[in-house]
Specification:
Length: 366
């Protein structure tokens, strides 16, 4: 057939061959251009997806938290519960006034995202190291003695004047007011420097510290801000309940006199109206012979029902003073090193205060 002859003709085949090659090249070029256009359009989306995945991975990485002493660790643990578990620098049995950082401590600090401490008036062993880390912007350092809402008790006054941190963010403008004299108000920063640093022994102060921790963690880890706020709300509810329980439990011993080893308990004593007659040591300094004789005289007169030592210090001095008297002797642990705790770290502050309170009651309510 004519149609078949035209298709099979060599001449026709040679004429059609260049046309076929051109078509293939054209088609290939068009496909390449389409693919290139597709990749160009997809690149921003792919980059965005990669960035989103990276941000998601970062948000899923819990912040690395470090704390100075165990009571601070307890409060931070309650707020970071379910997200991050903070480590503590001060080992059990040590006192923050005499501790020296080890290389392993410095390594932990270098790897941390945030560090919580009371301040230089308690953990002076941290001051020099934190100055070195001050140039490292990624380490968030929070001194909880500067937390808004704290009630501070001065160490400079025999009657332990109380200071109140104003509720606003600018610590430089915060003032502390004397509650029982007419002295002029002084900056909270100065008040903190000369205040009893054992602020956690007042549950209301523990709540103020927890609020500060929650704010720091929410700024550091916005992806988990709601969880931090939820943990803070639970902590606040439990503090309110704890306060009522302690008022009831401590009522029978409010008028019973006692001595403590050193002046670490003013916050707890003032909050619940306890009757401390004195202390062996001020700021952990060695007591004078005159002071020891005065304490012994008061004990011999029967005014004191109990003398409290601490597990961080040798009790031999107390044993010498109370020898030959009928006064009872027990242990108070302001750092909570010697207490037993459950597996849930969010409960540890409440378990600490409960055991601390029971030591008071166990010795005085007899």
């Amino acid at each position: 057939m004519k149609y078949r002859a035209e298709i099979s003709s060599p001449l026709n085949a040679r004429k059609e061959k260049p046309q076929s090659k051109a078509w293939v090249v054209t088609a290939w070029s068009q496909a390449n251009r389409a693919l290139l256009a597709l990749l160009i359009c997809a690149t921003p989306s792919l980059a965005q997806a990669g960035a989103t995945a990276m941000a998601s991975a970062q948000s899923n990485t819990p912040p690395r938290l470090i704390t100075s002493v165990q009571p601070v660790q307890m409060i931070v643990s309650a707020i970071s519960h379910g997200i991050s578990t903070p480590i503590v620098l001060l080992p059990p049995g040590s006192t923050p006034h005499e501790y020296s950082l080890k290389p392993s401590n410095v390594k932990h600090i270098s790897q941390a995202d945030a560090l919580f401490w009371i301040g230089p008036s308690l953990e002076n062993f941290l001051s020099r190291t934190l100055k070195k880390f001050s140039r490292r912007s990624s380490l968030n350092v929070s001194a909880l003695i500067d937390a808004p809402g704290l009630k501070l008790i001065s160490l400079n006054d025999e009657h332990h004047h109380e200071h109140d941190h104003a509720q606003h963010d600018d610590a430089a403008n915060t003032v502390a007011e004397h509650s029982d004299d007419a002295k002029a108000a002084e900056p909270a920063e100065h008040a903190a420097e000369h205040s009893d640093p054992h602020i956690w022994l007042d549950p209301d102060n523990a709540l103020a510290m927890a609020r500060q921790v929650s704010q720091v963690l929410a700024n550091l880890d916005p992806a988990n801000a709601k969880r931090y706020q939820h943990n803070l709300s639970e902590f606040a509810q439990r503090i309110a309940k704890l306060h009522k329980q302690l008022q009831h439990k401590l009522m029978p011993i409010k008028n019973k006199g006692y001595f403590v080893f050193h002046d670490a308990y003013s916050y707890f004593e003032q909050r619940y109206g306890l009757k401390r007659l004195g202390e062996f040591s001020v700021n952990e300094s060695k007591p004078s012979v005159k002071k020891l004789m005065s304490i012994q005289s008061i004990i011999q007169q029967g005014q004191a029902e109990c003398v409290f030592s601490e597990p961080q210090f040798n009790p031999s001095l107390i044993h010498t003073v109370i020898r030959g008297t009928n006064v009872r002797q027990a242990t108070l642990d302001p750092l909570g090193d010697s207490y037993q705790y459950g597996v849930d770290p969010s409960n540890h502050y409440f378990e600490f205060i409960e055991q601390f309170t029971n030591q008071f009651i166990g010795c005085l309510n007899q």
